[in-house]
Each structure stands twice: as structure tokens, then as C-alpha cells.
Write a structure and sequence with these properties.
347 residues; four-stranded antiparallel sheet; Oxidized Rhodanese, domain 1; alpha+beta; globular; 11 helices; Jelly Rolls; five-stranded parallel sheet
Length: 347
């Protein structure tokens, strides 16, 4: 069961969100119903969470033994349970109750981006927060990508520098072999990624609303490795290379010195990821490393462990820095070996 916008609109600090974000949040959360005489606080939920009482009567017991009765819809219940007191140690439903658990991290990202993007000028077109809350910057995209780790001070500046570009079906946005000039986010529409193999165009992927492309050539300062063509009309948000390097690459790409990288691997905190060709890996790959060539990194997302940190390496650091950014953009913990294997060995 989903809550209504009216219910969300009375909750703190949720009600500070724009109408568009509230409508998005409605689609992302689910309510819980509990029968009289039960203790909802015993349920194991992924955290950290805000837990709201939307309807019914709930008695909570605080660590000092004091009791408090919360009634859905009253002022005290408009804040998360335990927000203004010590976290309760137990509870008991007096009537049937309706509870709403909200993921704190997701809500915090939504509030931050909402506040930093109240009015943004995309190349002369002022876009209110309703357009910022479009699927290009939806909560799902923000929390599952590198954008969630962007320093808040950079968000407004980043959005100011994006340009909104209408595109048509069949239009080629980037061409294989060309120099990298822009980073792209798909606000609406779809496109296909192709590469010339043996004289024929081979389709590598189809990208949809909320996905990005064009970053590989910008990070590695190399020619475009594939072509991207629209399969329908749409709108792209593009960011010029200097702005991408300043506002996305610099704060988000994490280089590691050889000694620190080896220490993390030895402690079991991270694993090597070799993004060179298989022949190179067979020659001098790191022990226990995973080998995924750079041009296959996106298709390998489903095979990699999102709970593990990867230290990406290649011969010089160029391919590995590009792969590390792609991984970070896909929601992985990734850093890259500064200087690559060609750097001076650690003592």
C-alpha cells in the first residue's frame, strides 16, 4: 500500500520537498499495517530509516521506562518515531496502525538535490525543480550512481552548466574515433551504442532515460570508443569536457598509490580489477585479480560484487581511471592504481 501525497505533505522534514519530488517519493515507498497488540519495532528493517506513524494509536516505551502514546495525524507523529526523544526500546499497537518506513539516505539525497536545484538555467532555459525531478535526476538515478557522492557545494554549479539539447530519432550524438567533447545524461528517449567490428556495426548496448554516456573518452583523454545514435526523439543534458573534469571527475575519481592499494588488498578490504586485454592480463596480472577489459566493463556490472571495493589497474592508469569512473557511476566502490603497473614498484 502506498501513502498519499497529502499524508507525505504533513510529515517533517519530508514536507519540505517540492511537489514533483513528493510525487516521486509516493511511488518509491510502501506502508506497513500492524494489528492491535503487536510490536512493530521488533521488525528487522534495512537501515538507517525514518519510521512514521500515519494512522492509529501506538504506545512506545523509552529507555528510562517512560511511556508515550502517539496518534497518527497529531503533531508528534508528524516526525519520525524517536526523532525528538531517545529511540524507543519497544512498542505496542493500541489499535491497528499504519506505519511508513523511509530510507534516510534516499530521502537525504532527494532533499539535498531538491534544495540545490530550486531553479536552474539549462543554457538559457529555466527549469524549476519539477524538471530536475525528472528521471534524469530521479532518486533512483541519484542514489544508484556516482552523483550521490558529489559534494553538495558542486550540485548547483553542475546543474547550471548542463545544457538541455533536443534530439531526433536517427541522430548520431557521438561518433567512434572522434575526440571527446561532452558528457551526456538522457533526460528522455533511448539510444543505441555501436562499435565497428570487422567492417560491420555491432550493437553493444541500448541506453534509456536516466543513463549516461560519453564519460570514457573524457576521463581517459582518448578518442570515442563507440558511436551513440538515438532510436527515438528525446532530450539530452550535456556537460562540456572542462566542466565534467572540474565538477565530476576531480571530486569523484579516487587514485591510490601502489603501497596503499596493496595494503587494502592484503587486508581483504579490496580486490584487484585488471581492465587490460586478456593477453596482457595473462602476462603479468596481479594475483587473484578479476580481468574485465575496459570495453566490457558496463556489461560486467551484473557479475561484480557491489559490496566489495575494487582497485582498478592497467599499464599506465589511463584505461583504469576510465573504468573506475564507469564503476563509480554504476554505484560500485572503485578507485584506480595511480600510474598503473608502469609506475615504480613499492618497496
Amino acid at each position: 500500500m502506498t501513502p498519499t501525497i497529502e499524508q507525505l505533505g504533513r510529515l517533517d522534514p519530508v514536507r519540505g520537498l517540492s511537489p514533483a519530488r513528493l510525487a516521486e517519493l509516493v511511488r518509491l515507498c510502501r506502508c506497513e499495517r500492524w494489528a492491535p497488540g503487536s510490536d512493530p519495532l521488533t521488525k528487522q528493517r534495512p537501515g538507517p530509516l525514518f519510521l512514521y506513524l500515519l494512522d492509529g494509536e501506538l504506545r512506545i516505551v523509552l529507555p528510562d521506562g517512560a511511556g508515550q502514546v502517539l496518534v497518527g495525524g497529531c503533531d508528534a507523529a508528524n516526525w519520525p518515531i524517536g526523532y525528538k526523544t531517545a529511540p524507543p526500546v519497544r512498542s505496542r499497537t493500541i489499535t491497528e496502525v499504519q506505519l511508513l518506513p523511509l530510507d534516510f539516505e534516499m530521502l537525504d539525497v532527494m532533499m539535498t538535490w531538491d534544495e540545490m536545484s530550486a531553479a536552474v538555467d539549462f543554457g538559457g532555459q529555466v527549469a524549476q525543480s519539477s524538471s530536475i525531478a525528472s528521471t534524469a535526476f530521479s532518486a533512483e538515478v541519484l542514489t544508484g550512481s556516482v552523483l550521490s557522492r558529489l559534494p553538495p557545494a558542486h550540485i548547483h554549479e553542475l546543474l547550471q552548466r548542463f545544457q538541455r539539447v533536443p534530439v531526433r530519432r536517427g541522430q548520431t550524438i557521438v561518433r567512434e574515433g572522434d575526440a571527446g567533447d561532452y558528457y551526456y545524461l538522457i533526460e528522455s528517449g533511448r539510444c543505441r551504442v555501436t562499435r565497428l567490428v570487422g567492417g560491420a556495426q555491432m550493437e553493444l548496448a541500448e541506453l534509456k532515460t536516466g543513463q549516461a554516456f560519453g564519460e570514457e573518452a573524457l576521463v581517459s583523454d582518448s578518442p570515442r570508443s563507440a558511436s551513440v545514435t538515438m532510436t527515438g526523439d528525446g532530450v539530452l543534458l550535456r556537460l562540456a569536457k572542462p566542466d565534467f573534469l572540474e565538477l565530476l571527475k576531480a571530486p569523484l575519481l579516487r587514485p591510490l598509490a601502489r603501497a596503499e592499494a596493496e595494503r587494502r588488498v592484503a587486508e581483504g578490504r579490496a580486490r584487484w580489477l585488471d581492465v587490460r586485454y586478456p593477453a596482457e592480463f595473462a602476462e603479468d596480472g596481479m594475483p587473484d585479480a578479476v580481468n574485465v577489459p575496459l570495453n566490457e566493463i558496463r556489461t560486467a556490472f551484473g557479475l561484480l560484487d557491489r559490496n566489495r571495493e575494487y582497485i582498478v589497474y592497467c599499464q599506465s592508469g589511463r584505461r583504469s581511471s576510465a573504468a573506475a569512473f564507469l564503476l563509480a557511476q554504476g554505484g560500485f566502490q572503485a578507485s584506480w592504481l595511480a600510474g598503473g603497473l608502469a609506475a615504480t614498484e613499492s618497496p
